[in-house]
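The material for today's practical consists of a large collection of protein records. Read left to right, the C-alpha cells trace the chain's path through space. An example says more than a description, so a record of this kind follows:
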Amino acid sequence: MGRRRRHLFCGEDQALADEAQEGYAAGLTGRRDRPTASNSPFWSRPDALSCVIANWAAAPDLEVPE
C-alpha cells in the first residue's frame, strides 16, 4: 500500500475557489475532508478542524513520515 495523503478543503473559503483547492490536490490519493470553514480554519472553526485532525490521527492507514 502506498503512502496515503490527507487534504483539507475549506467549504466556505472566500480566498480560494473550490476549483483551485481541487487543483492543489490533483493527483493525490487518500482522504479529503471539507469542513464548513473559511480560508483559515484555525480561526474560523477550530472545533471542526480538531475533529478532522482527530479522525486523521485515528485512521489505521495513516503513515507518519520519518
